[in-house]
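Researcher: We're reviewing a set of sequences before deciding which ones to prioritize for further study. For each one, I'd like a predicted 3D structure that I can look through quickly. This is DUF4127 family protein. If possible, include the structure in token form so it fits the rest of the review sheet.
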Amino acid sequence: MRRRTLLATGVAGLATVALGRPALAGPAGRQPTVALVPLDDRPVNTYAPQMTAASAGARVLLPPRELLGRFFTPGDGAAIARWLGTTDGADGYVISVSMLAYGGLIASRTAAPTLAAALDNLAAIRNLRAARPDAVIEVHDTIQRLAITSTGTELDRYRDALVSWAKLYDQVVNLGQEELRAQLDAVRAQIPDQVVEDYLAARARNHQVNRLMVEWVADGTISHLVLSEDDTAPVGLARAERVELEALVARLGVGDRVEIFPGADEVDALLVARVIAAGTTPTYRVEYAGVSGESWTAQLEGIPFAENIRRHVAAVGGRVVGGDADIVLAVNTPSAAPGQRAADLDAFVGRIGALLAAGTPVVVVDPLIVNKADHDLVARMESGLDLAALLSYSGWNTGGNALGLALGHGTARWAYLRSSGSGFGVPELRGPGQAHAEYLLYRFVKDDPWKNIVQVEAYAHARAQGWDPLALTPAQKSYFDGWVRERLVPLTERYFADHFAGHSIVLGRRGATTFTATLARFESARVELPWDRLFEVILEPRLQLS
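Model: Here's the predicted structure for DUF4127 family protein, in token form for your review sheet.
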């Protein structure tokens, strides 16, 4: 096995494990299908759930691309509502309220969409339930984050002040910390009235819709609901809204069908996995690299990470246990002291290796550093583990994002692999196995070398030319499409050659027979920027099995 750890050319890993056919079952001979109304059109909300499903032999059906909008152009919620009415062949549904009601995540943070229009679009969920009384209808909505979206306009001047004001307002008005009132008044004086009014109008509309979705769980319209806290904090208006929603959930007695947790971008993939793995009820044991998640709260979150794990696990249809489990979640947390870090990581990777040697499925969650993988961990994994034996990995963006993406992929693949007693031969297993490997390659390359190397260089290159990395012009975006492609395609190919080529993956087991394939070749990769900014990238590798 060739191994290489060099931050200059990229690092990451792959994963796989055993068995073969999804828990979600459509009619014989037809690929199971999940209809998805995504949070927006970015890869994390389209490609990630598609590949999560594909690794489990299922298919995600998306609305036509032109209906989803792009960046600051909202999606067409009314047209998507009509599209939902054409999906009666789907085996299950995952619906983002942000897209259906407002046109996507960014649009949901503005006061522009009216409540009346949002409710008109959301009626599609009621219509779907009336047409399909027994359908699984998974819904998710966001509790609006504290920050407004950076637009590259005058509004950006007030972005940080609004966050400070939203936190101080909660502390003074809701939590009674009067000693902070002078500070609250001073911050409020820095922000124009219209900016605050628009901000509060969007929050009030969204909170009303949040409440309505909980009520729709109670009356049976929605099968299961996730309310995700988008980039939150221990205090702030989002905290106060969450507390009200938790009280409503308790009053209506729907706590077994509603989860509320920090996150957002991971929920499409997580709920697709829930539909796929329905009925399997996987169990998970948690192993930490450093301190316990009971005593650590990830950045941009407001609850201990251990609690966020429990809530994400419940959302995917499983439960956390203390002893033997179907899957181990290996979670990268900080060390109690800086001097312990190297020893903690060495021991953590050693424990993962022992679990893999014992045949235990392992999902690695890397939430430590916001927006990128912890390279120190990945480097040790490369040198100390057979990465192809892992079930899944993610280190992307916030802690909740990383958790949900890894948990969704790992759970869907595990559910597919465990049900190996049925199927129609090895060819059926090869497609899901290839998709699984391609998504793993994507996950590791995107989370480590893209975030730690190529993106850093791209930001510096843009700024050196006087360009804003988060607000590119069309011409600048076209330039960086080529610039990023020239670097990321060969990096991905090298990464495959160094860490994947020649590795065996288990496709499935039928009785006493285990079917495997070899990761033979890197064929190609599609690379471009999805939006006019350098924050994320489309990376779609194609591999060949032998």
